[in-house]
From TrEMBL, chains A, B:
Needed cofactors: Mn(2+)
InterPro entries for this protein: Glycosyltrans_GT2/GT47 (IPR052427), GT64_dom (IPR015338), Nucleotide-diphossugar_trans (IPR029044)
Lineage: Eukaryota, Metazoa, Chordata, Craniata, Vertebrata
Molecular function, one GO term: alpha-1,4-N-acetylgalactosaminyltransferase activity
Protein EC: 2.4.1.223
Protein name, entry field: Exostosin-like 2
Length: 330, 330
């Protein structure tokens, strides 16, 4: 009994100490684990909040972009533009969003005219919706998306330069078409371009949006777009318009900065007049601009605030087309 | 003895356990401490490596800049320019680096023509040195420095815009005069401007330096400049040139990116011809450009490598002077 009694305190003390230290060690490990989780993520991907599923990170996926072009009733323009865009430097793949519901994709003709520089995927849509182009396509392998309207021709030089600019501003929409909103004393917002009054921050003009119909942006934003309030989809479907305004709201909310970076194009053309289909784009509808002002105000309601911010930064390519564009008396 | 004997194992076991757990706890605390140190620093100050002594951080010190203007033998130009620059928006103070050794500063005249919008400090120099303007002046209270040559007139609009650009790129030299280096097959570098061959990265031109004689940069770089190899000071003193090239090397090394951001000036003028002194600037010396190529190669030796990087980003102000500068067919 002595023996038993004598071991007991040691063992009890040992056990208590053991328990205590185990708890302390576990607590410290949890703290260490939490701190590790707070360490900055690897800087390669500058967008830690976008929960993009990991895909095979080939070298090309980082240094190239995917062209997403939605098309409706302008197949002649589409094919003309594809001949141009399929050869742009750093292009990884083309995704054609086929809004011609019920009409066969020109896959046979496309293949018969191969080989082609890059893969071109035709995504058949079941409903003709403006926001079809904002799906998170599984074929998308690159971090960068170039989105183009199917009637817009931008030169290869402009695109190569704008892509290099996007690589320096990957969280922004880097593109060729700036727009702005202004607020009025009544609190109602208006949408427009240069014709609208300047927002009044110093001299010159400001822009608060860059339209996605001719722009580069991070593919993670397509993933983000799938997680927006239902009211946003309803608005875009109701107007068949404003998906680009919605994207600018999304990006501005995400970054807390101006959503876009405007790159002044040297050569950008609208080929609308050249189509045989006789179809003219949505922006010819009488109510188009009013609709977009309407969208701005609806989105402010949906997002409970105005996240768009102004910028007056205009980027051009140094010494292109020629060095005269930067020569001065110095 | 039973008792003594029975306590001993318990106490020994307890002590061993205690020691062991103490060691474990200390190790875990050290690990936790190390992890905490790796947490990202507060993002307000984007330059965590510059050991700038904390000064009173008034609101104006963050939203304004200090003009540093060195002057030699052109007091008439200096005074003409001071009338202009003293009224630039967001200017906090002017520091005139008086290289007219032995000559009285025009303080009496300056005061008699007061009041002035901002304080102007005349720093009398004992030796006429080019690098006098790169001292870490105690009068400097702002994060931003605007450095101007004493014969250069830049419009208030350009300066206000460039300052706003600097605030978005605070680790860069944001200014109006781009230059570049090129490498040759022999490994020898050359210095120049648009007349030199393009470095060959795609089309258009590139720049790898922005001259500090008309530029904004972070005041922390003046502090950094005091800690450069002696050979750098010797080079600048030997040539009475190249302090700006040295600053570009310093900034490029610090950031690992292009040192400068070029803002295309709307109105920049060289007033050299207007001086009564008959003194024409250093850049008129026959050997000026050759000297600068010489400096590039010497600095590469001193820093054991070429840190300068190319950029082709040219920034202009959106819609200024008028909105025609961004209108296009879209």
């Amino acid at each position: 009994r002595h023996f038993h009694f004598c071991k007991l305190p040691g063992r009890v003390m040992g056990i208590r100490l053991l328990r205590f230290t185990s708890v302390v060690i576990i607590v410290l490990l949890l703290v260490a684990g939490a701190l590790t989780a707070l360490l900055p993520t690897i800087k390669d991907d500058k967008m830690p909040n976008l929960r993009r599923e990991p895909k095979a990170q080939s070298q090309s996926a980082l240094d190239s972009f995917t062209l997403i072009m939605q098309t409706y009733n302008r197949t002649d323009l589409l094919l003309k533009l594809l001949n141009h865009y399929q050869a742009i430097p750093h292009l990884h793949k083309v995704i054609v969003v086929w809004n011609n519901v019920g009409e066969k994709i020109p896959e046979e003709m496309w293949n018969s005219l191969g080989p082609h520089p890059v893969p071109v995927v035709f995504k058949v849509q079941t409903v003709n919706r403006m926001r079809n182009r904002l799906q998170n396509f599984p074929e998308l392998e690159t971090k960068a998306v170039l989105m183009m309207d199917d009637d817009t021709l931008v030169s290869a030089h402009d695109l190569a330069f704008a892509f290099s600019v996007w690589q320096q501003f990957p969280e922004h929409i880097v593109g060729f078409v700036p727009r702005k909103h202004i607020s009025t004393p009544s609190g109602v917002y208006s949408y427009g371009s240069f014709e609208l009054q300047n927002p009044g921050f110093g001299n010159g003009d400001q822009y608060s949006m860059v339209l996605i119909g001719a722009a580069f942006f991070h593919s993670g934003y397509l993933e983000d777009f799938q997680r927006q309030p239902e009211a946003v989809y309803a608005l875009i479907d109701e107007t068949q318009n404003c998906d680009d305004i919605a994207m600018n709201f999304l990006v501005a909310k995400h970054t807390g900065k101006p959503s876009g970076v405007f790159v002044k194009p040297v050569d950008i053309r609208n080929l609308e007049k050249d189509t045989n289909s006789g179809y003219s784009g949505m922006w010819h509808r009488a109510e188009h601009l009013l609709q977009r002002s309407y969208c701005v105000n609806k989105l402010v309601n949906i997002y409970d605030g105005m996240p768009l911010k102004y910028s007056n930064i205009m980027i051009s390519q140094f010494g292109f087309p020629n060095y005269a564009n930067h020569k001065n008396k110095m």
